[in-house]
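Colleagues,

For the teaching module next term, I've prepared a clean inverse folding example: a structure given as tokens, and then the sequence designed for it. I'd like students to try predicting residues themselves before seeing the answer, so please don't circulate the second half yet.
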């Protein structure tokens, strides 16, 4: 009898303890106790997430293509002067410019010492990932050996998923009916009608880079930019700096045929010194020449 009474008292005490615990610590119906979070504390705070429009220290997804592919910007250094490099605007047709952009990203990862303390370098290796994907299986990492030799695919890869020539979609002399050499191409329904050009526009509006280099192929030269205001002194200087170091000839304008909606000319209209660097052909990245030009460009803004 005595043992039974003791057991009853113990059960009552335990029950009372459990009752008062849950009274002060209510358990949500949605809770999953002891389940570890799949995210680190930084990811939970949002500092390492890479959804469009958010950035971390090393990389920003600045937007997505027509086909839903990420447009990625890589960041190096932490200075006040941001210098922007862009490749792959013509996707698979100028795949060597995207490869050059990827090569620069890899180089800066292993040689951060080349970046002056006063500057920050941002590289967008592939502005037109849909076009590039027509000739390579992966737009983030590929080599010349991975590129389809089909000229038909490479020409088709010049355009984005809406069959728009992105270098005819910016707001300087924009026309919907544009040309590439002697061929008619689409400049889009309006200036900045395409998500890829909007992504760059929004990034530039938010970050206001000090200067920009955009790679194309193929003519073998460095071309200054302007949008009916003449070539600025700053643009003329960086044209000559990159040209002298790289060995490419320098030109005040691209006048082989009429170009409307050009990216670097829009940058000039936006008061950002910008140059077009056209590689000599459609297959080589001419790394030694361009590395020399890049280093001279960076040093110019280190002063």
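(Answer key — instructors only)
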């Amino acid at each position: 009898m005595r043992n039974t009474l003791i057991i009853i008292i113990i059960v009552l005490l335990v029950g009372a303890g459990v009752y008062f615990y849950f009274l002060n610590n209510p358990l949500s119906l949605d809770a999953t106790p002891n389940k570890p979070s799949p995210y680190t504390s930084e990811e939970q705070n949002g500092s390492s997430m890479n959804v469009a429009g958010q950035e971390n220290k090393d990389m920003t997804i600045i937007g997505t293509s027509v086909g839903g592919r990420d447009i990625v910007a890589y960041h190096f250094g932490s200075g006040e002067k941001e210098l922007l490099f862009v490749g792959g605007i013509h996707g698979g047709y100028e795949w060597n410019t995207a490869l050059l952009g990827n090569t620069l990203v890899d180089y800066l990862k292993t040689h951060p010492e080349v970046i002056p303390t006063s500057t920050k370098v941002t590289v967008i290796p592939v502005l037109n990932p849909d076009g590039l994907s027509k000739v390579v299986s992966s737009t983030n990492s590929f080599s010349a050996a991975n590129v389809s030799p089909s000229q038909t695919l490479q020409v088709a890869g010049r355009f984005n998923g809406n069959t728009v020539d992105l270098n005819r979609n910016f707001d300087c002399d924009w026309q919907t009916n544009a040309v590439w050499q002697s061929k008619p191409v689409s400049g889009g329904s309006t200036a900045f009608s395409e998500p890829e050009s909007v992504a760059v526009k929004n990034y530039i509006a938010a970050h206001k880079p000090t200067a920009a280099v955009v790679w194309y192929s193929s003519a073998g030269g460095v071309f200054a930019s302007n949008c009916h205001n003449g070539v600025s002194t700053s643009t003329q200087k960086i044209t000559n700096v990159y040209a002298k170091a790289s060995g490419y000839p320098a030109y005040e304008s691209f006048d082989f045929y009429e170009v409307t909606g050009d990216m670097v000319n829009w940058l000039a209209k936006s008061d950002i010194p910008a140059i077009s660097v056209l590689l000599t052909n459609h297959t080589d990245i001419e790394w030694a020449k361009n590395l020399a030009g890049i280093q001279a460009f960076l040093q110019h803004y280190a002063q």
